[in-house]
């Protein structure tokens, strides 16, 4: 009875990790249960450690640790499942010289090298059926481990692309109001058309990359200029200020504004991989003081439109908090003031 239980548990474990690995690496819709659980637990542990010691730079190692932990987790679970299957039959693994059945440690050893090679000869499968099974897991194990390692390559490429889009957004302005002030020509904000047109496609692509590789959410940058989340939040808030407080004839064209807003919405949708709770956070207050001081025409916002955007802004707030940022930091300077002239920063 115990041997049957070991066999069933081993099969379930192997099927679970195989499905999780294949779904995570090939599905365009995110991570499997095992990998997402590992990622979330590690992120929360590192996140609260950074809060406890008040040292945000700890978060910068989270992404790499999570990717490596997911990979190691797949290997260990695959290894453990096959060990249980070999334990289900006393004669499954034997010493090639004495023909004595292997003990637990020897079966763990035999399973480990079988998953990556066909062994070194000191232990072997005890029957034709087990020899066929050993050959099967040798091929399948090597393939699955290779797939897991290959998963890291597009993730790291996506991290680089994310830094690039973040720097591009930050170049428009370091805060929502600065983005608008930098593109006010004295009459309207049509100068933003070029920026918005250039950002819509790469942001839409980032949304899809985050759906395909949810682990990207856990790559944190302490430098705001390279951190996509506070910059996307600032850009989205700039658009919100345009939609609520700026007369329609002075806004960028709908052909530029709508695709970008929709791309950001897609990006926010990719955050469903995270355990965000927008309902538990307070909606940030609106700040248009610099726009008013610059003499830009401001209209009184419609209360219905404000209420419609409440969920969106709370989601942005929850997104920032989950990644270790505060809402006020979307207005923080992005570059060292000692590196250039004030007008270049």
From TrEMBL:
InterPro entries: K_chnl_dom (IPR013099). Keywords: Membrane, Transmembrane, Transmembrane helix. It comes from the Bacteria. Residues 83-156 form the Potassium channel domain. The chain crosses the membrane at residues 5-24, 30-47, 59-80, 136-159. This is Potassium channel domain-containing protein. It comes from Pontibacter akesuensis. The lineage of its organism: Bacteria, Pseudomonadati, Bacteroidota, Cytophagia, Cytophagales.
